[in-house]
Amino acid sequence: MRVMPLAADSLGVRSMATYVEAGALRLLIDPGVTLAPRRYGLDPAPAEEEALARARLRIEAYAVRATHVAVSHFHADHFRTDASLYAGRRVWAKDPRRATDRHQAAQGREFWRAIGPHCRLEPAEGQQVEVDGVTIRFSPPLPHGQDGSEFGHVVAVTVDDGMRFVHASDLQGPASPVATAYLLRERPDLVYLSGPPTYLQTQVGHEVVQRGIDNLVRLVGETGCRVIMDHHAVREPRFRERLAQAFDTGRVVTAAEYLGRRDECLEAWRAALWARRRRERPDVRDATGGP
To answer: Which structural domain range is residue 24 located in?
Structure first.
């Protein structure tokens, strides 16, 4: 099996877009990518806009190869309503009528209306299918973060060709005991998930962040799996210090590290990127309108 993160927060954009090859299966997961509209009171820096353009092109290039597509949920950094990414393929997507918040329900209904005529579109929840000897299995709805999250639910996808890979999207740790139990039951060899949102600790609370760290360490300890931890986890400059318990297991890496690259957590570095641009080009105003 070949697992390739295509776009990620440690690669400069908000995304968990991933391409998986296993036997004859060519699976594109969560082909969305965005930037945070505001961080530190600043709009995206030019370096972020450039990373976004590259990420979109990379996702589109791998979509051409894909035979199947999976969409875990309907936040803009996880899907695009662009028929060319899905046309002629078998597509599994979160059911917008089931276990969803108002925002995702509206986005999901629009996705199904726009994409449905162009592909074989099916609800993902609970499905298990075989593609030329490779098993693809979808979770029931799992909480987007902690149980009772206002952000609704997501669907995890497992690809098993003898090696077992789980793309677990925005579980944020996992923060939820339900999501943790599901991952433990899957017995993965490799998991790709959104880590604890340390940058939101003042909103969600220290206990939620710590629970996500503890659950991740437990997952590694009980299964021996490797973990790609990215997305919410790398959105502040001190994330390695804040998530040291996870990294210290020796089994956890960012998406950039998994690819053998240096982290480029551009959103976390946004203030520094604008400060450097002001030094280099004092005649250019920054995103706040200041010199």
So the answer is: 2-280
pLDDT of 281: 76
**In this model, does residue 77 exceed pLDDT 80?**
yes
Burial degree of 150 (CB within 10 A; 0-12, 13-18, 19+):
exposed
Dump pLDDT digits (tens) for 188-233: 999 999 999 999 988 888 999 999 999 999 999 999 999 999 999 9
What pLDDT was estimated at residue 151? 87
Domain count, the chain: 1
| Domain membership flag for residue 289 | no
- CATH code where residue 224 lies: 3.60.15.10
Query: What is the rounded average pLDDT of the residues 91-115?
Result: 93
**Nearest 5 degrees, angle CA 35-CA 41-CA 46?**
45
* Whole-angstrom distance, CA of residue 167 vs CA of residue 28: 11
**Domain assignment present for 196:** yes
Sign of the CA dihedral 212, 144, 10, 59? positive
In a domain, 288, yes or no: no
pLDDT above 60 for 69: yes
Q: Which residues contact 57 (CB under 8 A, 6 or more apart)?
A: none
CA distance 95 to 125: 7
Does position 286 have pLDDT exceeding 60, yes or no? no
Residue 97: how many CB atoms within 10 A of its CB? Answer: 11
How far is CA 58 from each of CA 12, 20, 32, 280, rounded to the nearest angstrom? 13, 14, 11, 30
CA distances from 214 to 145, 165, 235 (A): 14, 21, 19
Q: What are phi and psi of 276, to 5 degrees?
A: -65, -40
What is the pLDDT, as a whole number, of residue 289? 47
* Closest residue by Cα to residue 211 from 62, 219, 189, 47: 219
